[in-house]
């Protein structure tokens, strides 16, 4: 099967969606499919798939740009800048099926009328399912031949309207494994316990809530790996409520396993994220997970995580303390849960669904 994955950030950044598409492409190409990726970054040596570059402007350049219909945030502006390059290199006849998680501009480019053959199109709800169910503004033009729902909520909401399937994200269990901490090399605090967040510094990730909760736990430090428009605001809050116990940093993708291994517990407080890859990465490295007790979160992490009442801030503090206490116990249960999501299993489920869509 000839498969195309298209996304502006491919080969330029390693956020959740980019990691998902690259991991799937590698697995599918290894199994014998002809897989192509189109993104805005450079070639990467050793890739098992074909890669085509289409330029795009980084979303950070658009953080202060106006919010308009079809340009609702810096991500939409970045995607719009990717559209012309994508159109110039996309050859519909080269593919059986196209895959993206970006709407509107990337989806529109892949679905544009050609007057001839148009490959089947699959949309993945990596960033949410609102394009599929909303019926206003640009969302009323959404269309796809198959919808991959990354959690049960999305499947229930959309299965009657689209050919849909439930497939979670995955984890490279050969790369994310338990191991020794490397705190000094990574710039972690060397005194006290460390709670780690891996998060974009945006409002929906609730990093300020995490700062205020960890501040109430004696001798606990908070390390936040990520960047975003709230970087300075969050530093100011931390300086006020937990001076000397907060660290913001960024690390290259190759350092992510060492990052998790160097923490005592992992914290993630997003309430509306379609699927938190970071939960799996932390568990695969043997780290206790602390989060908000929501059905979607529990579906990912199982019953071994420390999930707090979303309406009780004091319960979050208690769960952080419990998670830190559990860090000294055996990591086997966390690792076992993560291995259920190995990319080889997830890729097989994608392959089955793509085959169904193409044959329909």
Automatic annotation (TrEMBL):
Q: Which domain of life is it from?
A: Bacteria
Residues in a coiled coil are none
Instruction: Tell me which residues make up the Glycosyltransferase subfamily 4-like N-terminal domain.
Output: 16-175
Q: Where is the signal peptide?
A: none
The Glycosyl transferase family domain is annotated at: 181-340
- What's this protein's name? Glycosyltransferase family 4 protein
Q: Which organism is it from?
A: Sphingomonas telluris
């Amino acid at each position: 099967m000839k498969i195309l994955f298209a996304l502006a950030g491919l080969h330029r950044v390693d956020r959740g969606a980019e990691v998902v598409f690259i991991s799937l492409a590698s697995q599918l190409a290894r199994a014998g499919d002809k897989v192509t990726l189109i993104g805005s970054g450079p070639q990467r040596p050793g890739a098992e798939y074909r890669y085509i570059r289409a330029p795009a402007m980084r979303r950070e350049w658009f953080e202060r740009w106006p919010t308009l219909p079809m340009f609702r945030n810096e991500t939409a502006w970045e995607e719009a800048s990717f559209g012309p390059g994508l159109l110039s290199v996309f050859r519909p006849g080269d593919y059986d099926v196209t895959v993206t998680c970006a709407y509107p501009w990337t989806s529109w480019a892949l679905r544009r009328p050609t007057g001839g053959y148009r490959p089947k199109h699959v949309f993945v709800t990596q960033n949410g399912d609102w394009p599929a169910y909303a019926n206003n503004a640009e969302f009323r033009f959404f269309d796809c031949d198959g919808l991959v729902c990354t959690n049960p909520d999305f499947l229930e909401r959309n299965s009657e309207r689209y050919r849909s399937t439930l497939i979670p994200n995955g984890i490279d269990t050969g790369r994310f494994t338990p191991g020794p901490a490397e705190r000094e090399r990574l710039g972690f605090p060397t005194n006290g316990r460390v709670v780690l967040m891996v998060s974009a510094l945006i409002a929906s990730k609730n990093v300020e809530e995490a700062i205020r909760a960890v501040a109430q736990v004696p001798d606990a430090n908070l390390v936040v790996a990520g960047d975003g428009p709230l970087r300075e605001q969050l530093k100011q809050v931390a300086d006020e409520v937990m001076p000397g116990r907060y660290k913001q940093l960024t690390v290259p993708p190759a350092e992510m396993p060492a990052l998790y291994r160097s923490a005592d517990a992992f914290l993630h407080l997003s309430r509306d994220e379609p699927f938190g890859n970071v939960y799996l990465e932390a568990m695969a490295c043997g780290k206790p997970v602390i989060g908000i007790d929501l059905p979607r979160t529990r579906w990912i992490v199982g019953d071994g995580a420390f999930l707090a009442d979303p309406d009780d801030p004091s319960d979050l503090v208690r769960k952080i303390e419990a998670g830190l206490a559990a860090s000294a116990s055996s990591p086997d249960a966390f690792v076992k849960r993560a291995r259920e999501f190995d990319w080889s299993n997830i890729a097989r489920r994608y392959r089955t669904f793509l085959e169904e869509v193409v044959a329909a």
